[in-house]
Amino acid sequence: MNKPKTYNAASIAKRMLLITLLGGVLYAGIHIYRIVDANSANKHTGNKAYLKRKNNPWNKAAVDSTNRLLRTGDLVVRRGDDMTSYMLSQLNTTDKTYSHCGMVVIENGQPFVYHSIGGEDNPNEKLRKDRAVFWFSPANNMAYAVFRYPYSDSALPGLVGVIDSFYRQQVMFDMDFDLKTDDRMYCSEMIYKALKNGIDNNIDLEPHTRFGRTYIGVDDLYRNEDTRLVCQIRFK
Questions:
Q1: Which terminal residue of the chain, N or C, has fewer Cβ atoms less than 10 Å from its own Cβ?
Q2: Nearest-angstrom CA–CA distance, 139 and 55
Q3: Residue 30 CB-half CA count within 13 A
């Protein structure tokens, strides 16, 4: 069995430069995808901004309060504090605020976030399931938000079933950001396909085409008439 490729900062920078020279900001961005996972607060331990966010009691209280608001099927989005997160946020169609997303499932009374993430902080590149309080952590994130779709109660089992299927299949992260493939998915693609295949509700989510590539952005998941903002936090 072939080992999955991992990408460190140097290799990502080289790929970014090469692809940028070949043309297309989007094409460059999707080939340097490396979001820092909030569970591994490791890169910025000596950084003053990191320590300020991590140790601020207001930030912890905000995460704890958000944790109590979560429901199964909620869309969660966040913005990392690294350059890669900035570049990924620029791939969004309209709202450049957030760079990563996941979906909440309540299990035994506790909210978990299922999300597809790659890079050196998730070297096996398999779909992850993390506790919500870790996913929202101020350690490596600057902001987050929670959005809610107009699900009926009868729709949720189908949605959860699709997400669980992706997780059990150990769907890999899609470094090529190819919406056509189902064995590998990037973060917003996983949410898009879970909604598309798991519920009957008519939620208007439309992929976009730029530079000859069709993709679904993080902002495409919540910029529609039906989606409701539950909360929005910017860490202090």
A1: N
A2: 9
A3: 26
Residue 15, helix vs strand vs coil: helix
**In the chain, what is the straight-line distance between the N-terminal and C-terminal CA atoms, in Å?**
45
Asked if 137 and 67 touch (Cβ cutoff 8 Å), the reply is: no
Q: Look up residue 84 and give its two tokens.
A: 């890669």
Specify whether the CB–CB gap between 137 and 66 falls below 8 A.
Answer: no
Q: Three-state SS for 83?
A: helix
Specify the 3-state DSSP secondary structure of 78: strand
Kindly state the percentage of the chain with pLDDT values over 70: 79
Other CB atoms within a 10 A radius of the CB of residue 222 amount to 22
Structure confidence at residue 18 (pLDDT): 39
24 vs 148: CA distance, rounded Å:
33
For residues 75-86, average pLDDT: 93
Structural domains of the chain ordered from first start: 9-234 (3.90.1720.10)
Place of tokens 């008439």: 225
